[in-house]
Design a protein that fits this description.
Layout: E1 15-21, E2 25-32, E3 41-48, H1 51-63, E4 68-72, H2 78-85, E5 93-97, H3 111-123, H4 135-167, H5 172-175, H6 182-192, H7 198-202, H8 213-219, H9 226-256, H10 261-267, H11 275-285, H12 295-301, E6 310-311, E7 314-315
Length: 318
């Protein structure tokens, strides 16, 4: 908080703008301090969120010689606004802030009031910017997060296959730790085609599972029927599609991370960190650590620090 003499708040920016963002519109307030005037001058406008509307917003700010702009991180709707305003031709200094820092009083919330409040807080230096990495890093983040979602979908399909096997008393998961591994996939494919008895299915075992063939024979002696095979075929089809998607994303990531190969290699020397985790770390934190004063700040930003919750001398788990 910027303060002058006798505790009076000091103006940090004589001209700045606050933007309140919604799905279909953005409300903007420019705040100017003029010499000899006690009150700030306000200029307000509302723009749509189509690309041409946001280009007009950028031009409107440029014409009024605004440099500093703050906006709330509203869902995903702030992203296209940021992507357009961050272009170097507009010469704007952008700040993304947490909505909780500019929360309006109950009964006193409108889009215009929100934009005014953001502009006022920005002018007095009362806002703390969220860390927004450069666009190439944001794109890596999109890819790693997409991979995480697809991997989650894949795991859910595998779990559904495991539950389906249990319904016909096939205990493949009791012997093979990974029912979607090479041995498991081969057995599942044969099961979906009604090919072979328990002994023949067990002979498909590979690697260390060859030592467990007697256990596999017992585990695969179930009561599969036509309904089971119909269900299993469709789940295996979904699994193959997700495997293909993961392979495509991994190929894209490998290409995008070429220039960071040495950094990824060094990250992989951390115990418990392999290539996928290293890529996520790089995508989430970026390559410029100067944004984080200490390692504790970086861990806090990544959500790896426990929160504090204490009341009446009792500390609660967070």
């Amino acid at each position: 908080m910027a303060r002058g003499r006798k505790g009076v708040m000091k103006i940090l920016y004589r001209r700045c703008a606050g933007i309140d963002i919604h799905k279909k519109s953005v409300s903007v307030c420019i705040r100017r301090r003029v010499e000899g005037h006690k009150e700030a001058e306000l200029e307000e406008a509302v723009f749509g969120t189509f690309t041409q509307d946001l280009e007009r917003l950028a031009e409107w700010l440029k014409q009024r010689k605004v440099k500093q702009v703050a906006m709330e991180s509203t869902g995903v709707y702030w992203i296209p606004v940021w992507n357009i305003l961050e272009h170097r031709k507009w010469k704007l200094e952008l700040m993304l802030v947490n909505p909780s820092t500019v929360r309006a009083l109950r009964g006193q919330k409108t889009d215009r009031i929100d934009a005014r409040r953001i502009a006022e807080y920005l002018q007095y230096g009362l806002l703390r910017a969220s860390y927004i990495p450069p666009r190439p890093v944001r794109q890596l983040r999109d890819l790693t997060r997409m991979r995480t979602h697809i991997q989650g979908d894949r795991n859910r399909v595998i779990n559904r296959i495991g539950r389906l096997l249990e319904t016909v008393n096939i205990k493949l998961g009791s012997v093979a730790s990974n029912i979607a591994g090479k041995t498991g996939r081969a057995i599942l494919e044969r099961l979906s085609e009604d090919s072979g008895n328990a002994e023949q299915l067990a002979e498909l075992a590979l690697g260390s599972l060859k030592k467990k063939i007697p256990d596999l024979i017992l585990a695969l002696d179930g009561r599969a029927d036509q309904h089971f095979r119909w269900m299993l075929k469709r789940l295996l089809r979904k699994l193959k599609m997700q495997d293909t998607e993961l392979a495509e994303i991994d190929a894209r990531l490998a290409d995008q991370y070429t220039e960071h190969a040495d950094l990824l290699k060094r990250l992989c020397t951390i115990p418990g960190v392999e290539i996928t985790t290293a890529r996520v770390l790089l995508a989430e934190l970026g390559t410029d650590m100067s944004h984080f004063p200490t390692a504790a700040h970086a861990a806090s930003w990544a959500g790896l620090c426990p929160g504090n919750s204490e009341s009446a001398g009792k500390r609660f788990s967070r």
